[in-house]
């Protein structure tokens, strides 16, 4: 590790790498960790060595440095210096003499003169140590190992065979050329490369090391500048924390001296002209030789070639672009240059760049003070960036425009700052948006500016609207009696009523009032947003006016922004289609919306629509596709800090259906925690529904019942009556059957069926039929149950709900197996689940197939009169299964098994498990 550079904590984001390394080491193999400087090799090495130290007898360590790499046998002395007395006595005289001379420097040992004796001495020493217990050799910075030590270690390593000696090494490599360093390691050594951290992992690392509160836009810049290198990222974070004045828009991050020295050590070898050429390249967004020529760098090719030879530029061409070997080199080079030289570079690029956005940006960075002409150019560029779907760029340009706008300019500087804040919201950079809005509020006096800024603060709060309660009275006061401004505030009050208060009736009333105010003020955009919200609320409530409100929201004139916004008209129409079982049209609608918001750069809407498309695919039974989409939504949500709870909730459903139930449960708990922290009752009910479903698929019916009962209570309090909103009713009813509560299950079904019939929710009715079939089977009415299951499966297949269809087939197979009438194969259920790629459900099918009673184990009629669950438990008792084993095979709790056995004893007039076996055996004998 380089002197003066702080140690990094790179275990964040290294879980998969560590798992593979541990597997290799647990098999007795050796490992080489490789990667560029600062990537975290030493920390990984220390972690693995610490874990292994308790399982080996001897640990030999060496850490090489570049300044000492010319000293022969130095690494060997580090490794064997402390154990020389322990091993030397057992060595032959020639080997002992050669080794002692090499390690102590008292003789004149050399590879040329004592080569064979030294090689054999190292091999013998390792074998002697290993004879007393396993040996671990830990070598950091293998690239600086002196050549003599490397040769001796390699000779021994190739001949150790089954000797219990493992090597754990780290080597710095800037590319994939690492194999030459393996000459010092055993033949079975595994080489693993440590890659860069993702933006989310860099953010977590910065938080872990105390650099908290950084805006996400700044974290994005740190990630880009560091290239995902944890050491570089931490040093950049430290520099920002120590800098009282954050960089202004368009300015680079402050690069600390430690990193400048690390990456620019070869800059002194460049000519002055080459250095100026590289400065122009570092100032440009996409530098090419042609751009450098246009900017006045006549010898750009030769000067770039010189820089490439020194490792400052990438040697592999990437199209026509001039690419720095690492982003930090560009940042450090720019930070090192005097301000006057930077402005000169930007001035040259302001005429050389072909893109108008780039020209405007360079013009701003080349100018000082206010200039209406520059400000106008920047505002035009911001509008162009907005149209191109780059709201983050638009926000940066608008801030630059505000900086160059005179105080009495038109539009005013704060108008442009608020445009930047609104663009930042669209781009998902809520921290930046909030900071801009609060800055404007410190001096704004115009009601329109103040209300506009307050609305940015509210938008930036996301689902945590309770945190900005104090904003609403101030915003209403600033709005006065202006209907346009009041409409904005009442629209946000509608969201507050839903999210914070959980009062759908109040939310609907506020949205309707906002729409009326916006219509009076001729603000069509806000009117459409309010109508979309009103229609969504009415849909969830099962309100009879929902179809009429949707039609009002779809009337012309439309607003392109509202049409694709995640809270807009398109989203409301999609939700209606999905709840009405129009899956094909719903998929087409949401796919078109996702395409449009990606084009516009609307990050929050993209997170939302990825989630909704995943939900559509789940309904259709495309679990693999849904899992991919849900994971993508969750990655983007975590990367931007937008909608993390909602995306975790949907990812739970996807994991429980097509992935891993353990991950599903963890995601559900995360979603519940987010909703509870935000005070969001609506999403809390969805998160608990996900938790209940995950428990159900994982085989924990009592836990599923507990979570889903909470959902029922929450939705009753919220006034949500449409069972197509969460579709949890069937899961609760089926879990209640498994825990021996068929009466409550029937009550859940009856209530949900009443609402589903009123609203025409056909797929919900089919699922409820499946659930009621299980209730009837539990009560002994198996003929009726089989008929209802067959009908439910057919209806779900016709509606295109593939996963629910497969669940009906599974329930029918289990019923037939228990009744021992008709086909008892699970093949149909397995085929349907396989078509859906519903892996957790396939595992349940396999377990049920294994758990079904053997033909010879149950006498015909032996268990007549028992319900389905009772018969299954009794059959497994006959096989000799314990209560815990029965619970595991039937995916219920031990308590449920005990209660079921109590009912079996009562119905059969017996007292114990033994009596069940005797009864069955006696009937078989007759």
TrEMBL record:
Q: Which UniProt keywords apply?
A: ATP-binding, Nucleotide-binding
Molecular function terms from GO: adenylate cyclase activity; ATP binding; DNA binding
Q: Which residues form the HTH luxR-type domain?
A: 859-924
- What highest taxon heads this organism's lineage? Bacteria
Note the SMART domains from the entry.
Answer: AAA, HTH_LUXR
- What SUPFAM superfamilies has UniProt attached to this entry? C-terminal effector domain of the bipartite response regulators (SSF46894), P-loop containing nucleoside triphosphate hydrolases (SSF52540), TPR-like (SSF48452)
Q: Which GO terms describe its biological process?
A: regulation of DNA-templated transcription
Alphabetical GO CC annotations of the entry are: cytoplasm
InterPro entries registered for this protein in UniProt = AAA+_ATPase (IPR003593), AAA_16 (IPR041664), P-loop_NTPase (IPR027417), Sig_transdc_resp-reg_C-effctor (IPR016032), TPR-like_helical_dom_sf (IPR011990), Tscrpt_reg_LuxR_C (IPR000792), WH-like_DNA-bd_sf (IPR036388)
Q: Does the keyword Nucleotide-binding apply?
A: yes
Q: Name the coiled-coil region(s).
A: none
Protein name as annotated: Transcriptional regulator
């Amino acid at each position: 590790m380089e002197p003066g550079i702080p140690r990094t904590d790179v275990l964040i984001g290294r879980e998969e790498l560590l798992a593979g390394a541990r597997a290799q080491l647990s098999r007795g193999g050796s490992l080489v960790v490789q990667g560029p400087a600062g990537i975290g090799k030493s920390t990984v090495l220390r972690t693995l060595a610490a874990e292994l130290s308790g399982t080996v007898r001897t640990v030999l360590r060496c850490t090489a440095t570049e300044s000492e790499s010319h000293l022969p046998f130095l690494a060997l002395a580090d490794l064997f210096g402390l154990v020389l007395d322990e091993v030397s006595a057992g060595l032959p005289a020639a080997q002992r003499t050669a080794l002692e001379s090499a390690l102590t420097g008292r003789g004149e040992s050399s590879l040329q003169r004592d080569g064979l004796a030294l090689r054999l001495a190292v091999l013998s020493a390792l074998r002697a140590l290993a004879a007393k217990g396993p040996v671990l050799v830990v070598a950091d910075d293998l690239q600086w190992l002196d050549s003599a030590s490397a040769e001796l270690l390699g000779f021994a390593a190739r001949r150790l065979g089954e000797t219990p000696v493992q090597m754990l090494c780290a080597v710095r490599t800037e590319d994939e050329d690492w194999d030459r360093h393996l000459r010092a390691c055993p033949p079975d050594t595994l080489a693993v490369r440590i890659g860069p951290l993702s933006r989310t992992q860099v953010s977590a690392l910065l938080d872990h090391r105390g650099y908290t509160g950084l805006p996400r836009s700044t974290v994005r810049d740190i990630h880009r500048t560091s290239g995902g290198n944890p050491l570089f990222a931490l040093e950049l974070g430290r520099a920002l924390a120590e800098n009282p004045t954050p960089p202004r828009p368009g300015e680079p991050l402050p690069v600390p001296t430690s990193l400048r020295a690390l990456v620019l050590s070869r800059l002194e070898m460049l000519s002055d002209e080459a250095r100026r050429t590289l400065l122009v390249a570092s100032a440009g967004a996409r530098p090419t030789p042609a751009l450098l020529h246009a900017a006045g760098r006549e010898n750009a090719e030769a000067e770039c070639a010189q820089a490439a030879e020194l490792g400052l530029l990438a040697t592999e061409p990437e199209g026509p672009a001039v690419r720095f070997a690492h982003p930090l080199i560009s940042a450090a080079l720019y930070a090192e240059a005097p301000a006057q030289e930077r402005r000169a570079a930007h001035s040259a690029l302001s005429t050389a760049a072909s893109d108008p956005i780039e020209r405007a940006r360079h013009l701003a960075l080349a100018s000082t003070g206010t200039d209406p002409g520059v400000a106008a150019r920047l505002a035009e560029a911001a509008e162009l960036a907005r149209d191109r779907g780059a709201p983050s760029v638009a926000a940066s340009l608008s801030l630059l425009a505000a900086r160059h706008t005179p105080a009495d300019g038109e539009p005013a500087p704060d108008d442009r700052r608020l445009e930047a804040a609104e663009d930042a919201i669209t781009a998902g950079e809520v921290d930046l948006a909030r900071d801009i809005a609060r800055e404007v509020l410190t001096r704004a006096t115009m009601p329109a500016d103040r209300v506009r800024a307050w609305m940015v603060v509210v938008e930036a709060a996301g689902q945590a609207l309770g945190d900005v309660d104090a904003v609403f009275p101030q915003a209403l006061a600033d709005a006065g009696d202006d209907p346009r401004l009041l409409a904005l505030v009442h629209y946000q009050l509608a969201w507050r009523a839903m999210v914070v208060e959980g009062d759908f009736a109040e939310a609907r009333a506020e949205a309707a009032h906002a729409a009326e105010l916006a219509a009076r003020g001729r603000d069509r955009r806000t009117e459409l947003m309010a109508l979309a919200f009103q229609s969504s609320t009415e849909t969830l409530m099962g309100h009879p006016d929902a179809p009429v409100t949707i039609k009002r929201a779809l009337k012309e004139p439309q607003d392109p922004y509202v049409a694709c916004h995640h809270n807009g008209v398109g989203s409301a129409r999609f939700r209606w289609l999905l709840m009405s079982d129009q899956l094909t049209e719903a998929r087409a609608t949401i796919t078109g919306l996702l395409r449009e918001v990606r084009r516009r750069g609307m990050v929050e809407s993209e997170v939302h629509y990825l989630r909704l498309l995943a939900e559509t695919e789940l309904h259709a039974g495309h679990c693999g596709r849904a899992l991919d989409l849900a994971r993508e939504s969750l990655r983007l949500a975590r990367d931007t800090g937008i909608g993390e709870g909602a995306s975790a909730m949907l990812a739970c459903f996807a994991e429980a259906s097509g992935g891993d139930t353990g991950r599903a449960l963890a995601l559900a708990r995360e979603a519940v925690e987010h909703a509870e922290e935000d005070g969001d009752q609506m999403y809390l009910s969805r998160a608990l529904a996900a938790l209940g479903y995950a428990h159900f698929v994982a085989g924990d019916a009592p836990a599923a019942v507990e979570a889903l009962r909470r959902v029922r209570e929450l939705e009753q309090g919220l006034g949500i009556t449409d069972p197509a909103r969460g579709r949890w009713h069937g899961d609760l009813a089926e879990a209640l059957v498994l825990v021996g509560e068929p009466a409550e299950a029937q009550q859940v079904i009856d209530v949900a069926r009443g609402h589903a019939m009123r609203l025409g929710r056909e797929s919900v009715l089919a699922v409820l039929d499946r659930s009621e079939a299980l209730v009837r089977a539990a009560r002994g009415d198996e003929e009726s149950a089989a008929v209802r299951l067959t009908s439910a499966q057919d209806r779900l297949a016709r509606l295109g709900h593939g996963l629910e269809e497969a669940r009906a087939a599974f329930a029918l197979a289990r019923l037939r197996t228990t009744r021992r009438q008709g086909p008892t194969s699970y093949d149909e259920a397995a085929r349907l689940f396989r078509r859906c790629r519903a892996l957790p459900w396939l595992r349940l099918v396999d377990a049920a197939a294994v758990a079904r009673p053997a033909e010879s184990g149950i006498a015909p009629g032996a268990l007549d009169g028992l319900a389905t669950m009772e018969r299954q438990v009794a059959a497994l008792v006959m096989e000799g299964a314990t209560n815990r084993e029965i619970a595991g095979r039937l995916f219920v709790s031990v308590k449920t098994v005990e209660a079921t056995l109590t009912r079996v004893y009562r119905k059969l007039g017996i007292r114990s498990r033994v009596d069940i076996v005797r009864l069955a055996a006696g009937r078989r004998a007759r």
